[in-house]
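Try this one yourself first.
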């Protein structure tokens, strides 16, 4: 069950309608927990796989408190291992209305495989229990991960990375970066998604449906 986070009236006034709605429901702005986590929401820009802006007003990354605190744990672990690096979030909690827009873009195309159907309950982003992220320098420059975030193809899969390196689809350095990202995220309790090196789930979909609420 979500617990509403405290905030001043001044802070509330500055928030976008979507951000206010998320905070009212108890979701947490991850940068309020740890300002060292960097955020650049890819669906607030047109340079994503849909080619359009899906987040009209949201610029902050929100997560369910359980996932948000776990992400802070991952960030702290990364800083222990590599003080020169930090996590950079590209997507977090995603309202179901946005999921529907995304689904409308891919239904009937080969890309549908990569997007959760809202008619079936959506995915863990729609519970604030999944995060898309990468590694970056303290200045915000992203590391080589083999593909860009949102790349829909085999080169983004994590189960055959040795073959991808051998075939020169990704570099050995990119593989090491992916492994480091998985290491710190697993340390914090997240589980990677086989087909997207950048996507991590805090729990299973069955657990989410049983114990958490979808974001409408």
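Now uncover the answer:
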């Amino acid at each position: 069950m979500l617990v509403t986070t405290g905030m001043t009236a001044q802070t509330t006034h500055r928030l976008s309608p979507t951000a206010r709605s998320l905070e009212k429901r108890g979701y947490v702005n991850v940068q309020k927990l740890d300002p060292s986590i960097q955020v650049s929401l890819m669906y607030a820009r047109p340079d994503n796989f849909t080619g359009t802006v899906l987040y009209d007003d949201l610029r902050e990354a929100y997560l369910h408190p359980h996932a948000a605190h776990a992400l802070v744990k991952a960030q702290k672990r990364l800083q222990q291992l590599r003080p020169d690096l930090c996590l950079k979030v590209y997507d977090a909690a995603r309202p179901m209305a946005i999921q529907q827009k995304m689904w409308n873009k891919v239904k009937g195309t080969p890309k549908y495989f990569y997007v959760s159907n809202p008619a079936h309950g959506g995915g863990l982003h729609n519970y604030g229990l999944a995060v898309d992220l990468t590694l970056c320098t303290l200045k915000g420059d992203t590391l080589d991960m083999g593909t860009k975030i949102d790349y829909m193809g085999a080169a983004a899969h994590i189960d055959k990375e040795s073959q991808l390196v051998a075939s020169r689809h990704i570099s050995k350095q990119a593989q090491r970066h992916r492994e480091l990202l998985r290491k710190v995220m697993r340390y914090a309790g997240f589980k990677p998604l086989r087909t997207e090196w950048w996507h991590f789930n805090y729990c299973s979909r069955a657990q989410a449906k049983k114990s958490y609420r979808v974001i409408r």
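Discussion: The first strand starts at residue 28 and ends at 29. Strands lie at 28-29, 38-39, 62-63, 85-91, 130-137, 191-193, 196-201.
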